[in-house]
């Protein structure tokens, strides 16, 4: 391994991502210079496949992959974990012998985020809006947390139905419903989850009207830029327990660092330095 650890993030609309800072700080904890490049296909005037080929050939140790490329990335890597193969999306890629290898730290990061806020509480019936890359990882995380019923909403109904089928195959007995209108399936949901980009910088709004949150127990928003989305503000105003997308960001980043480097990380120090706005050049 060379002195500099070269990493990056492939995605659209990632200017506000805190992942570069997290990984630079992780490197600094270990006395290792770490670079983490934003890799936006449109800005590079390349298609995703060309960007992926570029980083694979340019000395990167690995890359994270975010919206909307996680499912496309899964088709370009070796996936050893059958669970990640079932998810069908990867957000972490390592360029190594016999690779590239793909991993999904959204899955592990969501489980950690949920447990940090809700402990051992069961999810209850869950409405999940968005069946894309992060939605797939979160849904399988919910299964690991004891999910017994999920309603999956996506504008692309066959996408929601395919995810429901994959979840049922992994968890026989799971009750699934699918649809294209979130408000229709919100009644009776204990947990409500946003796994769409709605609410992030550049995608203003909320995936569900505040009135439709009434009666739920908790919410999770995969968006973390901004941390305090309209969806979470509405949920807090309704008295719901809130799991921030920042927790998913932090958990997936910590797990990705371990996969990229195998080096240790002081998580409490990392949380503090991120909150303080610290960075290294």
Automatic annotation (TrEMBL):
A single Pfam family, by name? Shikimate_dh_N
Could you confirm whether the keyword Oxidoreductase appears in this record? yes
User: Which residues does the UniProt record annotate as the domain Shikimate dehydrogenase substrate binding N-terminal?
Assistant: 9-93
Q: Which GO terms describe its biological process?
A: aromatic amino acid family biosynthetic process; chorismate biosynthetic process; shikimate metabolic process
Q: Does the keyword Metal-binding apply?
A: no
Pathway entry:
Metabolic intermediate biosynthesis; chorismate biosynthesis; chorismate from D-erythrose 4-phosphate and phosphoenolpyruvate: step 4/7
Per UniProt, which keywords does this protein have? Amino-acid biosynthesis, Aromatic amino acid biosynthesis, Oxidoreductase
- One Gene Ontology term of the molecular function aspect: shikimate 3-dehydrogenase (NADP+) activity
Identification of the protein by name: Shikimate dehydrogenase
